[in-house]
Each structure stands twice: as structure tokens, then as C-alpha cells.
Amino acid sequence: MGNEKLIEKIKSIGPWFHNIEVLDNVFTREISPLPGPQPINHPLKRWNALEQHLPSSMDGLRVLDVGSADGFFSVEFARRGANVLATDSWKKMTDRVEFLAEVMGLSISTLTASAEDMKLKGSFDIIFNLGLLYHSRHPLLLLENLQAIPHHTMYLETTISEGDEPFLRLKPPQEGSHDAPKWFPTKSCVVEMLKFVGYTDIEIFEYATPNRFFLKAEK
């Protein structure tokens, strides 16, 4: 596919939430950005926080990227050699990931399904649950369902509320912004929910953005 056709395809299936370099200097969000407060290079800042905790080579690892959106993280995992299953409840998102996998020659398969009730066969080395928890209508059910999928490690990243006590804050739908409620947990709430569903080894990482939270959990 030539650059002109590639750019037209990126436009036709956009606008894009993630800025992904499909070919040299061809970036999805720079070509067709989704309106919003995120910077044009979104989610590069979140990736920079995460990647330092990952092995430089992920050859042979089976990875589940839950709530993959446009597929930035799935692409980065696959670039490191992982075999990735990218899931999202919105088919437009998984269609974009399939397009990226084909054009870039990456080992990424897709599934359109809700994380709260999807059933998967087989096991995974790592589950990535990035920026999804606060979008879920049923955050504890989401964690219970993911915990039931055979895997060794889960990386979780979410927006959080201030406070030391374990609680969830509900943000009602806002006209023109989003049409579903959002749940914002405190740090301790995330940890307690993970313990409740069966994770025993939880490591919290530093995060430069104070309203976001990043950790690794193992069974």
C-alpha cells in the first residue's frame, strides 16, 4: 500500500484516539485526530511510564490487551515480539487494530467483546488492563472476570480519586463528553479490589501524573 492510499485509509477509519506510527513519519492521530483534551501524541506519556517496567524483548509471550482502543499498546507489545490478543467492546476499534496488524505485519489478533463478560480459551503470560477500569459500568466484575482468565501477571493503570480510604467515586454522564457513568477509585480501593478477587502480590509504581495510578499484580 502506497503512502497516499495508506493516509486515505487512516482517514476513512478515523478519527483516531491513539497516535500510532504506521510507517516512517506516518502517524494516525496526526492525520485524523479525535477531538478532545489529549495531546496529539497520546498515549505516549503513559507508554513512557509503562515501558521501563517491561522486558525489552517479549518474544513468545502471549499477551491480552483488554480495552485496546486504537491499538497503540498492542502494537508496542507486538513490536517487542509478543503474540497479542487485542479486545475492545467497540468494533470500530478492533477493526483499526486489524488494519494496523495487517499493514505493519504484526502478530495481533482481535476480539470484539466486553471485558466484564468475555470468555477466553487458553492462558496468557500477561494481561494489560490500561485505562479501562474507570470506564467500566461494573469495575469489580471486570476484575473478577479477568482474574478468572489463566495468566501470571496483570498490569493495571487507571485514573484515580484523591483520598486514603478505599472508595469509588461515581462521575455521572456529561452531555457532550461521555454517555456513561465513570468510576474513579482511590489507590487503596484498587489494591483492595485486586486482593478481593484473588491477587496476592501487588507492586505499585511511581507515576508522574498525580491523578493516575499504575501497578503490577500477580496471583
Structure description:
The chain has 219 residues and is α/β, with parallel strands linked by helices. It has one domain (43-218): Vaccinia Virus protein VP39 (Rossmann fold), CATH 3.40.50. Helix content is 30%, strand content 26%. It is built from seven helices and eleven strands. It has helices at 3-12, 28-31, 44-51, 72-79, 91-104, 139-148, 187-197, and strands at residues 21-23, 26-27, 62-66, 83-88, 108-112, 124-130, 151-159, 168-171, 182-185, 201-205, 212-218. Strands 5-4-3-6-7-11-10 form a seven-stranded mixed β-sheet, with helices on both faces. β4 (83-88), α5 and β5 (108-112) form a beta-alpha-beta unit. The longest helix is centred in the middle third of the chain and has 14 residues, at 91-104.
